[in-house]
Request: fold
Amino acid sequence: MIALFFAHIVRRPAGWLLMILLLCSTTAAHALLAIALNSADGTISLIDTETYQVTGKATVCKEPHHLMPTPDEKSVVIACAASNQLVFFDPTTGQEQKRIRNISDPYQLGYSPNRKWFVATSLRLDRVDLYDPTDFRLLARLPAPKTPSHMAFDDGSQFVFVTLQDSNEVMAISLGTQKIVWVMPVAATPAGIVMSPDNRYLLVACMGEGVVEVIDWRAQKSVRKVPTATAAHNLQPKGDGRHFFVSNRSVDGSISLLDTQTMTVVEKYDVPGGPDDMMVRADGKELWATARFARKVQVIDLVSKKLKMSIPVGSSPHGVFFLNHAGLR
Amino acid sequence: MSNALLEAFVALQDWLLAHLLEPVLLTLGLGSYLEMAFDGVEFFLCGVLQITAAYLLLRPLEALRPIEVWPDRKAVRVDVLYSLLDRLGIIPLLVFALLAPLFVSVDGWLRFHDIIPPQLEDLFPALEARPLLSFLIYLILLDFAEYWRHRFSHTLRWWWALHAIHHSQRQMTLWTDSRNHLLDDLIGGFWFAVIALLIGVPPGHFIILLIAVKTVENLSHVNARLSFGRLGELLLVSPRYHRWHHAIELPEGRQYRFGCNFAILFPIWDQLFGTQYRGQAMPPSGLSHGPLAESAAQSGFWRQQWEGLRALLATVLPASSPPQTALAHAPTTAVPLPSHAADQQRARHPSETP
Reply:
């Protein structure tokens, strides 16, 4: 029946036109949607990335905290801390795909580069859980006092590194043995953590000192502290294999651009409202950031280096994602 | 309009956070608490709005249709203080600071051992996508729990020693709702937290739930001749309905020996559990006798707190001395009791003798 339908329409010029239009509209839908996660409302806002208009809203769960794409980017996974769930959304349509229950208090999520591990931190309950990403079976549960927050992996997927926000430490967990292998002190209130593009250093955003601390993770040694601004909180790769954006999550707020070759801040943008999670457009022209304390998603024009747009969303926005993004590592 | 109001609210919230709390928290290395502080400022501002709205709407009612007229309102002042401490977040912050570590420890232990308390949405997944329905169900469940907390606070002698402070006010007004012993607040917070943990109250609902409950509670204590009619009082607690709960003398009947009309929002609980009294009159409020000295009932915040503690100790330590003089109110002269046939009254608490 479907074959007959297609055979019918491809024989006619209008049929071809219809098919082209259909394909274009599908492609456009893929490129247009941004999903912003509103933690306090328990919702997502769907935003048209071309017009910056909020086109829809969907209820997700209780206290969703972070979102991340699956490795194939066919889904966006949302960590529902208070609902004990993972909720999967289609990043092209914003439609819910599935829910996985009994995932205890997930806060921050991460897939290892080799896709063999799915890691969830429980910030409130001082715990890190390792799951099998194929069926979300719990493989190991490790105590992580205090307040395990963000995570990073080494390129070889040997370790996951977790910031311990209230004990001012970074913890390394061996994925092979599923054991804690070391814990080292860092600057006050570490939150965001990423691996440098050359796989040599961990970059840790420390809110208490307003710095990014550079750690030689193999030697477990702090190399330097790069001052950014008050409340340095999170890091996001620019996608050029060299620079990272650092959100400084104070109410007056800013975002710094860190050059990992020189380990210096090379640019800074004023972004009010507590900028937190970020996403860069594939063309490198825009940086989107959720402003936790302003109920907005802020769009920064990276050409003019100015705030371009403030998009009102829900309460305590805590994550934004769109498919048309720059590299994530 | 609503967007402009929300923008103004958020701008003020941000300003307070940026100028008052953020510098202090970051200086003290407490940056982790910024989000909580942000929520705290929201609670504070909602409290300011709620208390302002209650005053603007209910105080004129008290002036226009008073049940009781007093020569002065000095006795009300302490209740205003209680209300400010409660609604602006001081008492809730204390309760939270004391209880949160305990609950996080228990919850952490449970979940570390893969014991996840079931939540309403796990039983009824359809609720996930219906936030309004889910909110209403949580409101009903919490009100049910509050009914029993309130009833126990009258039934258990030691708890009544604390809760009597709330009932000792003879000039009951819109401010009286928050007049509670701090330990009573702490126990109430514990009760609420246990229920919230068991049924999984969404954090986003908390502030709205509290505002809903507190607004009705302000209204139910108001010194104004106001009822919702026979039908209305089946659905929502009215000032007349709740006044019978505060009546200086309780209705006749064994079912009322610990009090009547315990419901906070929905009178259905009293009806279901046999504690409802539908009096038509507006009786005077207060205690005819009880665990608290009359002078303490008329005194300031700290004295009331101290006397409440003494009364509590007197119930749990038989050897300790009771309060100097038990409450023994003379019949009120403010408003004559209406002679409604159904409004037969009796003494307040069976375990206390005048």
About this structure: The two ends of chain B are 57 Å apart (CA to CA). Residues 322-347, 349-354 of chain B have pLDDT under 50 and may be disordered.
